[in-house]
Design goal:
The complex is a heterodimer. By secondary structure, chain A is an all-alpha fold. Chain A is built from 9 helices and no strands. Classes of the chains: A mainly alpha, B alpha+beta.
Chain lengths: 267, 228
């Protein structure tokens, strides 16, 4: 028998699996398959002790009053994962070539590739969805007071994630390389460059030179598909770790029940 | 109670086995230090070149050259003729820009020409809007440059007439060679049309602007224009 005891959610008695009746056949094929799977998981767990961490992550106590608003963070993360997956597949066809190849490769994705327009559309509209969700998640945290002690650091990480999401929106906007993306990027780079003292240098950094040139597009592409997603992934990990470690807050309308020994009648 | 005696700095006095006379750093600390130093050297050997690689273009001067755009008699002094030049090589259409060119009008163009350019006969105005860099167009009926993005308006000389732009339109050095008008490097101007090294849009050059927005290494003051 496997040693691993899978964590089970507290189900009502009627939904728990019934114990075997005496005289039932010992092992049906389905049981054998289940046992084989169990053995595999057990083998991994014996060598990694992952189950403890998983239990710590998945089976947390949540406060009374937890509601649908608490899913906005997961929804944002799902939007990010969706962007990452569609982005990887778009990268298989995309060419960051400012001399016309970029526009042509996007046209190829949209017009010729099977389901290309769909995947491109998912990525394009998904980016807006992610920005909307991240703002709703931020508003939930703000209005529920969930940024207060001891969760301030998680708020700070969240703001960093918000800014990085904007960086993704900015750098991704150039990639289709049509008139709209080209001029929008010119404007964005010039807004960056209009900061005093360091602005001109930041503008040159974004352009990769004094003017929009052959390396600007590949720069934006590298930032968009490698640099920023990596940082976002790491920060989401830190964000989730803190959520799991500190737990979530109850909504502000739930009053804390005073401890028994503190109520007047008891005393 | 006797005061606790401070530990001797010599390893030999602290009873560490195998200590040398006069040795103050334990071999364990020495090894830890060596390992950390090696790690630091190895990491910076990767990081510093990568950083320099990414930041290098900040300090590289933007290559510019003279580009012929047409015969001198194509250009009148009361209207502009649009011509296309290349400002970034190797990216096709995206590297091109339109320049509006007219002959200098001594009555109108009273700005002082810098030393070495006293014989400049043409005014070559960049289409880059000085608000945020959208392309302006010259509207003949209004005799004005108008920007489609945020409503910047410039007068016949490229000075700001209205809207958000912070300084007059950039211009280009020009000369006549081999019977052709040639367009050279870009320069920026302030309200009095004094020449400055090229600045990005959105950077004023009047008053405190020149201090807030210094010239960049990629586009320094043009002491020597490209020959050839």
């Amino acid at each position: 028998m496997p040693k691993l005891k899978l964590p089970t959610p507290p189900l009502p008695p009627s939904m728990r699996p019934a114990p075997k009746r005496p005289g039932a056949p010992r092992q049906k094929p389905l049981d054998a398959a289940a046992e084989a799977g169990m053995h595999t998981v057990d083998w991994i767990d014996e060598r990694t002790s992952l189950s403890g961490g998983l239990r710590w992550l998945m089976f947390r106590k949540v406060p009374k009053g937890t509601n649908w608003f608490y899913t906005l963070g997961s929804a944002t993360m799902f939007a990010f994962v969706s962007q990452a997956i569609t982005g990887v597949f778009l990268a298989m066809y995309y060419r960051p070539d400012a001399a016309g190849g970029a526009y042509e490769s996007i046209r190829h994705i949209n017009d010729d590739v099977f389901l290309g327009e769909f995947v491109h559309g998912m990525h394009k509209w998904g980016s807006s969805v992610m920005v909307i969700l991240i703002f709703l998640h931020m508003a939930r945290t703000f209005f529920f007071g969930a940024y207060k002690y001891p969760r301030e650091l998680n708020w700070v990480i969240g703001v960093a994630l918000l800014i990085l999401t904007f960086v993704m929106s900015l750098t991704g906007y150039l990639l289709p390389f049509d008139q709209r993306s080209f001029w929008a990027t010119i404007v964005a780079n010039n807004i960056t460059a209009s900061g005093p003292f360091v602005g001109p240098y930041l503008g040159d950094f974004l352009n990769g030179g004094a003017e929009f040139n052959a390396t600007t597009l590949s720069r934006f592409y590298a930032i968009h598909m490698m640099l920023v997603p990596g940082i976002i992934g790491v920060l989401i990990g830190a964000h989730l770790y803190l959520v799991t470690k500190l737990g979530t807050t109850a909504p502000p309308w739930i009053k804390a029940k005073p401890a028994d020994e503190l109520t007047e009648e008891r005393a | 109670m006797p005061k606790k005696q401070a530990k001797s700095k010599y390893t030999a006095d602290r009873g560490i086995p195998g200590a040398f006379e006069g040795e103050t750093v334990t071999r364990r600390r020495f090894m830890v230090g060596t390992a950390h130093a090696t790690g630091a050297i190895a990491t910076s050997a990767i990081l510093l070149p990568a950083l320099g690689f990414a930041l290098g273009p900040l300090f590289e001067e933007h290559k510019q050259r003279w580009q012929p755009v047409g015969a001198p008699d194509e250009f009148a002094d009361d209207t502009y003729v649009p011509k296309v030049i290349t400002i970034s090589d190797g990216i096709g259409e995206a590297g091109k820009t339109t320049v509006y060119i007219r002959r200098r009008n001594p009555q109108l163009d009273t700005d002082k020409l810098p030393k070495g350019f006293e014989s400049e006969q043409f005014v070559a105005i960049s289409t880059r809007c000085m608000h945020l860099g959208c392309p302006v167009r010259y509207t003949e009926a209004a005799q004005r440059f108008i920007c489609p993005c945020h409503g910047g308006v410039y007068d016949f000389q490229g000075k700001v007439d209205g809207g958000p732009p912070v300084r007059p339109l950039d211009r280009f050095y020009n000369r006549v060679k081999n019977g052709q008008v040639e367009i050279g490097p870009r320069f920026s101007v302030n309200r009095e049309l004094d020449r400055f090294s090229p600045r990005n849009p959105g950077e004023p050059l009047d008053g405190i602007g020149g201090i807030l927005y210094p010239s960049r290494p990629t586009a320094r003051k043009l002491d020597s224009l490209p020959q050839d």
